[in-house]
Write a structure and sequence with these properties.
The protein has 15 helices and 16 strands. It has 488 residues and is of the alpha/beta class. The strands form three sheets. Strands 2, 8, 9, 10, 11, 12, 13 and 14 form an eight-stranded parallel β-sheet that branches. Strands 6-5-4-1-3-7 form a six-stranded parallel β-sheet, with helices on both faces. The protein has a two-stranded antiparallel ribbon with strand order 15-16. Helix 7 runs parallel beside helix 8, helix 8 packs parallel to helix 10 and helix 11 runs antiparallel to helix 14. Bound molecules: iron/sulfur cluster.
Length: 488
């Protein structure tokens, strides 16, 4: 029998819930983008829904899985979400952030109360990032504890729904990289702002604050508990992403050693997003953790390595703290591991990630990075522009330099911890021309970004008027060549 989770009671067998009956459900709504391999789940919202049910509040997680590029299909999925929430007569919808104002308007017009937990983006929503959330939804209480897991998750995705196969391992733990700005000459001019003076970690990221450090034994227990719980909620789970892998090396080693043989690990892949300087410093320990993982029936995978930038002035801009020498050593280790993988460690196919465009980038910074990419054969690099949001030193310095554009504010549930992203401009017009060309053509060259950047740099260097290059025309010509080649 299907439980009417939003009313907290089960309808009699064979009967739909009574139309128009008062219901008191709390829907927790998560959004994630599908990858070709599976769909990602949202552990924090799932934990919240379970807590609500334990506390007697009917609740369920609606996971909206978005297509990476098909906007119309995504509109249909969001519409299906609205229909489901109205159809289930839920009273409240809880979001990290309401996905779009239009979604907020539709739910508000349908009489559904809205709560945002990470930032307040929709005026009619209540902002609640603590226990007062239970007070807001108190009228929904049934007074009796409800089953935690039955029908806990509903996927709103492609018509042929895929289950959740991946989650992030997040234990409310801050990033372990805590370098301040005190000895960084690039940021001396903004240290009159107490918030900037107190900043720790990379200059575009808030994840090293607040400082929440646990001892490795505590983290080890939480890792095991987290994975055990997530496997109960998401039975098709295959992949656990570890966003700040370096904060887990010690605790993961303890967790694997102390639970050897526990089925909690079996047939999982733990995918790590790594700092290369930590790889350079702790390669042997990573190999040992991988061997322990293999002995427990799971594997460790290097997913993303954040090289970010080889050029010393840009390393200061990012307050990255990783020297070019360490980056070189990491690249050598990764290439060795790719050729001869240590037991339990999957390295081949990892993504070297680069932030090559900051507001202060110079042409020679781009050239230094392309040179190092070529030297180490990192041709699979993903090349990004620096994304800045308020509260970060990169934003504050750019603002004071007049390099933040007024106007558009992009909502972003960004992994770097801020929630709105601002457009920047470049101090050097030549770099602006290179960035414009690279951004316009990048969708046409998914896996050849360094080669594309080299080509765009050459075109800008040769152009009499770099700002006037017709990149749309280049893109059209490129597409025409591609179409002609496909008909051969
Ligand atoms: S960018 Fe990564 S390494 Fe830097 S502070 Fe953020 S989480 Fe830590």
């Amino acid at each position: 029998m299907t439980r009417d989770y939003l009313s907290g009671s089960s309808p009699p067998p064979g009967q739909a819930p009574q139309a128009g009956a008062a219901t008191n459900g709390v829907a927790c709504v998560a959004f994630s983008t599908e990858s070709p391999h599976g769909s990602r789940g949202d552990s924090p919202l799932t934990d919240l829904a379970r807590l609500l049910r334990r506390s007697g509040f009917p609740s369920r997680v609606f996971h909206v899985h978005l297509h990476p590029s098909d906007g119309k299909e995504n509109d249909r999925r969001v519409q299906r979400l609205v229909e489901r929430l109205i159809g289930e007569r839920c009273r409240w919808a809880v979001f990290h952030e309401i996905w779009t104002a239009e979604l907020g308007r539709q739910l508000h017009a349908a009489g559904i109360g809205l709560i945002e937990m990470r930032s307040h983006t929709f005026p009619e929503a209540i902002f609640s990032d603590g226990p007062d959330l239970l007070t807001h939804v108190s009228a929904c209480g049934t007074g009796q504890s409800l089953d935690e897991l039955t029908n806990l998750v509903e996927i709103i995705g492609p018509l042929e729904t895929r289950p959740v196969t991946a989650v992030d391992l997040r234990l409310q733990q801050s990033c372990g990289y805590t370098r301040s700005l005190a000895d960084n000459p690039f940021y001396q001019g903004i240290l009159d702002d107490p918030e900037m003076a107190a900043h720790k970690g990379c200059a575009h990221c808030m994840n090293a604050r607040p400082d929440q450090r646990l001892v490795p034994v505590q983290v080890a227990e939480r890792i095991v508990e987290r994975i055990r719980n997530d496997r109960r909620v998401f039975p098709h789970l295959e992949t656990i992403w570890m966003p700040f892998a370096e904060t887990f090396y010690d605790s993961l080693a303890i967790a694997l050693r102390t639970t050897h043989g526990d089925p909690v690990w079996r047939d999982l892949t733990l995918v790590m997003q790594c700092r290369p300087d930590v790889i350079a410093q702790r390669a042997e320990e990573i190999e040992a953790v991988a061997a322990d993982a293999a002995a427990s029936g799971t594997q460790l995978k290097i997913g993303v390595v954040g090289f970010e930038n080889f050029s010393p002035p840009e390393i200061l801009v990012l307050n990255r703290g990783a020297t070019p020498d360490e980056l070189d050593r990491a690249a050598v280790i990764l290439n060795r591991w790719s050729a001869q993988p240590p037991p339990g460690l999957v390295v081949r196919g990892f993504t070297p990630s680069f932030i090559l465009f900051t507001p202060w980038t110079r042409i020679e910074d781009l050239e230094v990075n392309l040179h190092r990419i070529a030297r180490h054969g990192l041709w699979q690099a993903n090349i990004e522009r620096l994304r800045v949001g308020p509260g970060t030193p990169a934003y504050e310095r750019a603002r004071r330099d007049g390099l933040v554009l007024d106007g558009s504010v992009r909502a972003a549930s960004h992994p770097n911890g801020y929630t709105s992203e601002r457009e920047i401009r470049f101090a050097d017009p030549l770099v602006a021309a290179v960035s414009a060309g690279f951004e316009r053509l990048r969708p046409l060259a998914h896996s050849e970004q360094p080669e594309l950047l080299a080509g765009v740099l050459a075109a800008v260097a040769a152009a009499p008027d770099p700002a006037g290059i017709d990149w749309d025309g280049v893109a059209r010509a490129w597409e025409d060549v591609g179409s002609a080649a496909r008909t051969l």
